[in-house]
Amino acid sequence: MGKRKLGALEKVEADLANLQHKIRRDPPSYKDDFDRQYEQYAAFYAILAQEPSSVDDSGIVSVRELIDFIAHVADCYPTQTKDFPNDLISLLEAHHEDLEPELREKVVVSLVLMRNKDIIDSPTLLNTLFPILVSTSSKSLRTLLYQKVLSDLRSSNAKSTNHRLNRTMQTVLFNLLTSDRTSSKGLWAVKITRELWKRQIWTDAKAVEIMKEAALAENEKIISGGVRFFLGGDKEREEAAEGSSDEEDEIDMDKLRHQAGINKKSGKRDKELKKAAATAKKKDKKKNAPHPLNFSALHLLHDPQGFAESLFSRHLQNAKSKLNLEQKLLVLQLVSRLVGLHQLTITSLYSYFLKYLTPRQPSVTTFLACLAQATHTFVPPDTLQPLVQKIANEFVSEAAAAEVASAGLNAIREICARQPLAMDETLLQDLVMYRKSKDKGVVMAARGLLSLYRNVGAEMLHRRDRGKEAALGLRDGTAGSARFGEIQVGQIEGIELLEAWKEEERRRKREEKGLGSDEDDVEGEEEDEETGWKNWDVEEDDSDDSGGWIDVESDGEDIEISDDEDDKPPAKKAKLDQADGKDDNSENKDPAAAAEEMEAKISKLATTKILTPADFAKLQELRTNANITSSLSSGRKTQRQKSQVIAEGRHHEDPLTAAEIEGLASLSHKATKAEKIAAAKGDRDEKHQSTTARRKEKKRSEGKSSTNKEKERQKNFLMTLGKAKRKGKRSLGDVRKALRGHVERGKRGGKRGN
User: Which residues are paired to 550 by β-bridges?
Assistant: First the structure.
């Protein structure tokens, strides 16, 4: 008996992809065909719901194809497929461990497809996938579900933030962590929260509370994940934002327009040019958009004091803690970071460091960095002095290795930079003497300590070590150590530079107009002020129009407040012989008089004038110039001196690492010849090229063609022989025609005339 031939209709029914295509084009015409396929699916589903393992391989293939087919066309027949999503959900929840892997993956993908078609909503999908993600033992299924959960949360927050969905998901993750602190299931809450924080989808305090509970868990992996989030989550977010901006290729519109003018005109090329222009405009708009204000996770904590105390008592002080040394160091870094950033008080923290401050302790530089990081202005000096003394005794001595002494001096300097009162006068003078050591790292560490106390406590140094500026400051009463708990008056950094610059500009303009030093130029100041607020780019601005007097009544007395700085002549520079002629005991002048002098020297520009945006721009410029001048004031600085300047300018809220404590100890290591050559070369990895070669390479990178002469030079020599012979046989008339044709083509704009 021969093989029966299939009819055209049967071929359409057998080919589900073809049927799917036809249904998408005309759903009513193929309703009966869809009903037949759906009946087959219903029969297979009944068998799978009873016993998933009873279906053979061919049946499983058929079920996979039918599920995929129905999921793609379910939106065309909403009435017939209203129970289809619930069938897949119940099948996946009940038999996800027993289903064949490819069939299980097809069910998950079909649910996600129906979510993208808005047949089911996002909460339904997440409530189905997340419990299976937490409970399943299949690694491949966990990977698939994790990717689908993240992608659904990202797509739900793509156009605008879906606050309702985010709150629901965050509550689920929070409850997962708090319900059982010993279970490892909470690791998925850590992974999801950290990934969404990195992608700037979750940036609120609720996400930080989830990671806070993770850090307080009792499972080692969850604790490490939560602690690492607080220590490095913000840096990951910044790197991800920079990476996404770098991945976007810049579109050169000039190059595209040039190509469109040369190439043959067509509708396709015109559409491509318009599309590229729209993309470039969109990227430019995104680039110029205001930067979102993302707070650090450490600043979004609700109760940093309670969090730091809980971390310290549960994971560090608790003898039953199962954390190893590396994990304990992570927790200690977080605790010290919280204490230093929020200026918390945990008295037992500092005594905890005592047993670890020995050179033989593994990772001792990390302990030193944590101790320095946990120091702030409100830590009692009596608490820190034993620690500083122990570091000096254990690390800084003639018998200690150079790396050990350098690390000890750097640690002491970082502690004293945050709390200068932790240093004893005798100990300071002893440590400063190490600047005469033979090791470069120890010398630079001791010099760093010396320069610190020249600024914050010059009276603790010997007279010969104070330096010129500190000695003059002590004589004037402007320099001195701060008292415990004293807070500096808030002031704009570098405002005195702007005030001096304004005074200089005002004096120069008076001289140009022929006015005296004491005469007012009110009209010029008013004109400058109006221009400053109109154009935002002036270099001078004075906010007071009248320059007159304002009567203010206070406690029955009339007080006159002048708002014009020109009434007082500019302060003259004190001469050195006058400073030398002062009494040597002026260091011990009355504290009240010294306080009045300090208050008089504080700039009042910010409190008496309204600074324009141009003023702030000029202030930034003056600060930059001042930093450059101070960095280069002593001539050509070495790499060690540059690193010292950077260390001094570091903000007190920045994290402190073990590498910064080790500092310049690597300088004591004598470099090999290969290391010297590598340091000399630096980043010069490119090969030497002539100017012509670099020009050609630049033209090729820009997509420009080479000239005809360059093409002839690159042509094979045997191919050019015939042309060379013909050129030699040409008559004068032929040469004249060729030259005339060349001139005419040049006038037309080339052979194409464009």
Answer: 561
CA–CA distance, 39 with 218 (Å, rounded to integer): 52
Name the packing angle between helices 84-95 and 101-116 (round to 10°): 140
* Distance set, CA 12 to CA 16, 21, 24, 30, 217 (Å): 7, 10, 14, 11, 59
Backbone angles phi, psi at 551, to 5 degrees: -90, 125
Torsions phi, psi for 744 (to 5 deg):
-65, -40
CA distance 129 to 234: 29
Among 71, 39, 72, 44, which residue's Cα sits nearest to residue 58? 44
151-156 contact pairs (CB < 8 A, 24+) = 151/112, 152/112, 152/115, 152/122, 152/125, 152/126, 153/126, 153/192, 153/196, 153/201, 154/196, 154/199, 154/201, 155/116, 156/122
Q: What is the pLDDT of residue 604?
A: 64
Query: Which parts of the chain sit beneath pLDDT 70?
Result: 1-14, 54-56, 241-250, 286-294, 478, 480, 487-493, 515-607, 627-653, 664-671, 682-687, 727, 752-754
Residue 275 corresponds to which tokens in the numbers above?
Answer: 């599309």
pLDDT score, position 540: 40
Residue 516: predicted pLDDT = 59
Query: Closest by alpha carbon to 70, among 49, 40, 25?
Result: 40
3-state secondary structure (DSSP) of residue 535: helix
| Biggest CA pair distance of the chain | 129
Closest CA to 513 of 504, 502, 501, 521: 521
Q: What does the angle CA 355 – CA 359 – CA 328 come to, to the nearest 5 degrees?
A: 50
CA distance 276 to 257: 10
The predicted structure's pLDDT at residue 177: 92
Q: What radius of gyration, in Å, describes the C-alpha atoms of the chain?
A: 38
Nearest one of 416, 342, 326, 328 to 372, comparing CA atoms? 416
CA torsion angle 367 369 372 374 (round to 10): -70
Helix spans in 572-672 (H): 576-581, 591-601, 605-608, 613-632, 639-648, 658-662
**pTM for this model (two decimals):** 0.68
DSSP state, residue 571: P
Within 10 angstroms of residue 68's Cβ, the number of other Cβ atoms is 17
Distance CA 155, CA 196 (A): 12
| Alpha-helix runs per DSSP H in 478-590 | 495-513, 522-535, 576-581
Report residue 677 CA to chain centroid gap: 33
Cβ atoms of 200 and 162 within 8 Å: the answer is no
Q: Which helix (H) or strand (E) holds 651?
A: none
> Residue 694 in contact with residue 686, Cβ under 8 Å?
no
